[in-house]
Amino acid sequence: MSKNGRVALVTGGGRGLGKAIAERLARDGAHVLLADVQGDLASETAKEFGEAGFKATGLQADISSESSVKKMYDEVASKFGRLDILINNAGVLGLESDGKRPLVESMSLALWNETINVNLTGVFLASRGAIPIMKQNKWGRIVSVSSRAARMKTGLGNSNYAASKAALIAFSRVMAGEVGRSGITVNCVAPSRIVTAMTLAVAVGKDYFEKNVAETAVGRLAEPADVANTISFLCSDDASFLTGVVVDVTGGSFMA
Ligand SMILES: NC(=O)c1ccc[n+]([C@@H]2O[C@H](COP(=O)([O-])OP(=O)(O)OC[C@H]3O[C@@H](n4cnc5c(N)ncnc54)[C@H](O)[C@@H]3O)[C@@H](O)[C@H]2O)c1
User: Fold this and answer.
1) Residue 203: what pLDDT?
2) Which of 30, 49, 121, 141 sits a CA distance of 20 to 30 A from 159?
3) From the CA atom positions of the chain, what is the Rg in Å?
4) What is the 3-state secondary structure (H, E, C) of the chain?
């Protein structure tokens, strides 16, 4: 799955799933750009990757802000002059400030907007900025991280998150049709539960992860590498005929 000479931007690449995806693409030979709203985290992770012998650069960027995304791509264009791969990974769960999951009847408009702004508008802004740069080389790979929550019945108090993750699938399908003849593919992955800071924040009951294991066919929880390996393939030359698809990385806990 060589990605030598490729430049790959991973949003939310500072930690968790984004970090694992970036590491896999870096192992494949790409120069990875870790774009995270937490700029210090992005720089620390890039430093760690550099010490491990990978090519990596940290960027501070808030994907929900049009001006921040523009600044990010100005930097990408001036420093690297190309962009081959975009992984729309950054996302938020959309919890209340006390960490609770809001039911629709009590959800504030501000929380709804905040979730949509990052999980959906952020994917739009990052993708819009990437397309003209990818078109210059007539080659590109865009993969967005959706969720099993967008594919099937999910927990209560999760409507903002599930709606944002479902919308990005429809968004990606249309975008795939728009850019296909420019050598750019657009796909989504929809992972089941993985242990990260995001899920640990809501893993209140001790069966939060165990319940998910029981639902799978393979009998284990998803690892970040399961998602990263799938994305590595979707971003390879071998996957040039795969576009507009959703890959359910769920160990069989969701089967279409
Ligand atoms: N962990 C899971 O079980 C799971 C399952 C399915 C899908 N996902 C999705 O995978 C993605 C990564 O999740 P994770 O578990 O690693 O979460 P995480 O909270 O551990 O990491 C998310 C990263 O995104 C960054 N980020 C948040 N808002 C941002 C913004 N506006 N601009 C730029 N960066 C921003 C954060 O700073 C953080 O580094 C998310 O989109 C999430 O919805 C996660």
Assistant:
1) 87
2) 141
3) 17
4) CCCCCCEEEEECCCCHHHHHHHHHHHHCCCEEEEEECCHHHHHHHHHHHHHCCCCEEEEECCCCCHHHHHHHHHHHHHHHCCCCEEEECCCCCCCCCCCCCCCHHHCCHHHHHHHHHHHHHHHHHHHHHHHHHHHCCCCEEEEEECCHHHCCCCCCCCHHHHHHHHHHHHHHHHHHHHHHHHCEEEEEEEECCCCCHHHHCCCCCCHHHHHHHHHCCCCCCCCHHHHHHHHHHHCCHHHCCCCCCEEEECCCCCCC
Q: Is 18 in the pocket of ligand 1 (CB under 6 A)?
A: yes
Catalytic amino acids?
Answer: 161
Residue 206 has pLDDT above 80, yes or no: no
> Ligand 1 within 6 A of 247 CB?
no
Please classify residue 17 by burial: count the beta carbons closer than 10 Å to its beta carbon, then call 0-12 exposed, 13-18 middle and 19+ buried.
buried
The answer to whether residue 205 scores a pLDDT higher than 80 is no
Domain count, the chain: 1
Show the domain range for 50: 7-194+224-249
d(CA 173, ligand 1 centre) in Å? 22
Here the CATH number for the domain that contains residue 124 is 3.40.50.720
Q: Please tell me the residue having the least CA distance from ligand 1 atom 19.
A: 198
The answer, yes or no, to whether any atom of ligand 1 lies below 6 A from the CB of 69, is no
36 lines ligand 1 (CB under 6 A): yes
The encoded tokens of residue 118 equal 């990052």
For the chain, the average pLDDT equals 97
pTM attached to this predicted model = 0.98
